[in-house]
């Protein structure tokens, strides 16, 4: 038998020896991708808004089929040279680390009762079931790890949870030069470990528009679950850092660049034997925004200081905050946007520029320009025949519907004067004409059933009640009120409220698009914040322009110039009129002259912590839309202070005036 065995070994050595040696030395080639630096974001003047701070890092690339015991040994070697912090670990994480020690799993298996090692038939359990029982046994016996062991277990978890041939960062902050040197010297005994770099987003100009920019996921968070399949198909790895919101998300494909590709050879022991760079990748592209960071900071400062004044006046106890957006009405380019969000239950305020596109409020009389132009386009009034009686509306079971000024102040008004003094009666009369209403005081008004769709159709042409198309993800539209009661009866009183802006709600971006449409002669422009996309050169500096955003007309509103001029003159009179009820006179001293329309909407504060909301306090939404210079507008803006208890401070006008003064001075249009 011994002779036969020797003969068989000789036979295998002679005949198949080469094959076995080749199998041992066999290598498989595969391609491994690597991340490239994320693109930068600049303002309109070339100032860096968002960049990358680079940090040295200890990385680990996991080989295919690497064993837990191998990782355990690498961890214990690595922690001789690098100090790691302990992180949050589950009991399972700790047990996994303990069982990875050489021979530990077999030792625990022997210690376990036989019932935990075999099934009911006495057969050996599968490796996975046996391992789960080992975990349970370890937990029952109690786990006691000191701080050093917990730190090692944290590193073990990161390395074990890495995907095959993917690279994870084991330490990328507070890495000392000594640690880097020691790891570099011992790389041969640390398979998969290497010295690399990682990056974090930084904001050299401050975080005044951080919410607009959006966020980037951490390596641990990786790809959001709802986009996993789509992004994996596009070549992403599960642990890639990607844009999760707003500009970082909207322009992810630009900012992320193209991954590098490295061809690696995997030996028969499943370790990486050799690697070769076959494609260095392309750095992420840069975004150049329409915002001027200096102007943006000033707009934010103006809004902050005015809101502080409102707090000092004691009118913000139910306030939602304050918001402002400034646009170029000719192109749709966003020049500045800022927001403050206030929590009335705590009084805490936070930066909320994105509230301009994702929060909606009832804006009040600021929308009356669209009401008048809708009536002109509908033909119920004309540029030369638009005088109406200025009388209140009496409906059964409803408070009198009137303007803020006393009944009888005006016997009749034309369209320009109605805008100047902000007549609710005038707007309701327009709605009734459009609806072919039959009105008798203290009786139900009979209207055409399409009155809501008719008025909203005109409003939509200006951008009110529809998405503006802004190039920032997450845009919403305002809320549309119901048109009928539960019994199917048309809500005629609500139709009247809609005519003077006290029913539907709109975002401030919708308001800015609406006033820009009036300012530029009837073109609804798509708002945008990214002016151009620019390559990044190999040296990290900005390269060639790849694309430039062209102004886009979404639709042309169907009014004539003579009809438009009625509203423009009315908005000019709202600033420069001499009647005591003129509404926007705080802006009258501006040079060049501006036009505006103020808004006041009566609303209520509903406390989210009071589910019954019994007797909610009455509040006011104070708003304003404006454009200037009046003769050739190059700036348009919208402002809102929602849910304040008094508008005596004219807060929206204060904000608008200060912005105009700074903008005119900055552009050389104002007084010396």
TrEMBL record:
Domain Penicillin-binding protein transpeptidase span(s) in chain numbering: 323-661
InterPro entries: Beta-lactam/transpept (IPR050515), Beta-lactam/transpept-like (IPR012338), PBP_dimer (IPR005311), PBP_dimer_sf (IPR036138), PCN-bd_Tpept (IPR001460)
One biological process term in Gene Ontology: peptidoglycan biosynthetic process
Broad class of the protein's primary localization: membrane
Pfam families the UniProt entry points to: PBP_dimer, Transpeptidase
Source species, domain of life: Bacteria
Similarity section: Belongs to the transpeptidase family.
Name of the featured protein: Bifuntional dimerization transpeptidase
């Amino acid at each position: 038998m011994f002779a036969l065995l020797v003969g068989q070994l000789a036979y295998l050595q002679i005949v198949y020896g080469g094959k076995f040696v080749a199998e041992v030395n066999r290598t498989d080639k595969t391609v491994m991708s690597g991340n490239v630096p994320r693109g930068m974001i600049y303002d309109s003047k070339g100032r860096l808004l968002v960049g990358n701070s680079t940090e040295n890092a200890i990385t680990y690339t996991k080989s295919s089929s690497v064993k837990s015991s191998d990782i355990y040994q690498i961890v214990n070697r690595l922690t001789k040279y690098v100090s790691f912090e302990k992180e949050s670990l589950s009991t399972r994480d700790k047990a996994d680390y303990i069982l990875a020690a050489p021979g530990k799993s077999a030792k625990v298996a022997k210690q376990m009762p036989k019932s935990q090692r075999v099934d009911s038939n006495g057969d050996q359990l599968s490796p996975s079931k046996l391992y789960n029982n080992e975990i349970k046994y370890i937990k029952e016996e109690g786990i006691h790890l000191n701080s050093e062991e917990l730190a090692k277990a944290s590193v073990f978890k990161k390395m074990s949870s890495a995907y095959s041939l993917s690279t994870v960062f084991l330490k990328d902050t507070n890495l000392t030069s000594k640690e880097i040197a020691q790891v570099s010297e011992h790389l041969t005994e640390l398979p998969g470990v290497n010295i690399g770099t990682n990056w974090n987003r930084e904001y050299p100009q401050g975080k005044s528009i951080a919410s607009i920019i959006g966020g980037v996921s951490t390596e641990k968070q990786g790809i959001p679950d709802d986009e996993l399949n789509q992004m994996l198909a596009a070549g992403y790895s599960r642990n890639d850092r990607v844009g999760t919101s707003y500009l970082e998300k909207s322009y992810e494909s630009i900012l992320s660049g193209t991954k590098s590709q490295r061809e690696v050879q995997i030996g028969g022991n499943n370790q990486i034997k050799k690697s070769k760079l076959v494609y260095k990748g392309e750095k992420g592209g840069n975004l150049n925004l329409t915002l001027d960071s200096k102007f943006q900071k000033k707009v934010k400062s103006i809004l902050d200081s005015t809101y502080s004044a409102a707090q000092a006046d004691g009118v913000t106890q139910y306030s939602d905050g304050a918001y402002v957006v400034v646009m170029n009405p000719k192109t749709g380019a966003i020049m500045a946007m800022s927001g403050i969000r206030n929590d009335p239950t705590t009084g805490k305020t936070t930066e909320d520029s994105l509230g301009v596109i994702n929060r909606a409020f009832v804006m009040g009389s600021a929308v009356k320009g669209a009401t008048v132009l809708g009536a002109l386009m509908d033909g119920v009034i004309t540029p030369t025949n638009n005088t109406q009686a200025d009388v209140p509306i009496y409906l059964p079971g409803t408070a009198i519907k009137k303007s803020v000024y006393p009944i009888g102040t005006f016997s009749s008004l034309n369209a320009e004067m109605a805008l100047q003094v902000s007549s609710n009666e005038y707007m309701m009369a327009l709605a009734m004409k459009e609806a072919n209403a039959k009105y008798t005081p203290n009786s139900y008004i009979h209207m055409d059933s399409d009155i809501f769709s008719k008025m909203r159709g005109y409003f939509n042409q200006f951008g009110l009640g529809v998405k503006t198309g802004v190039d920032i993800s997450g845009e919403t539209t305002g809320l549309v009120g119901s048109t009928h009661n539960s019994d199917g009866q048309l809500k005629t009183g609500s139709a009247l409220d809609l005519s003077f802006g006290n029913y539907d709600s709109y975002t401030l971006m919708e308001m800015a698009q609406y006033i820009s449409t009036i300012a530029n002669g009837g073109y609804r422009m798509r708002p945008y914040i990214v002016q151009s996309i620019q390559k990044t050169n190999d040296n990290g500096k900005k390269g060639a322009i790849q694309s430039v955003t062209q102004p886009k007309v979404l639709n042309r509103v169907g009014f004539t110039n003579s009809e438009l001029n009625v509203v423009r003159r009315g908005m000019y009179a709202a600033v420069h009129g001499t009647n005591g009820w003129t509404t926007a006179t705080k802006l009258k001293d501006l040079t060049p002259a501006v036009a505006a329309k103020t808004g006041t909407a009566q609303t209520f504060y509903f406390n989210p912590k009071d589910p019954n909301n019994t007797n909610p306090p009455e509040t006011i939404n104070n708003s304003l839309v404006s454009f200037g210079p009046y003769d050739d507008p190059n700036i348009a803006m919208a402002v809102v202070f929602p849910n304040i208890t008094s508008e005596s401070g004219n807060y929206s006008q204060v904000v608008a005036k200060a912005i105009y003064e700074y903008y005119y001075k900055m552009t050389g249009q104002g007084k010396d």
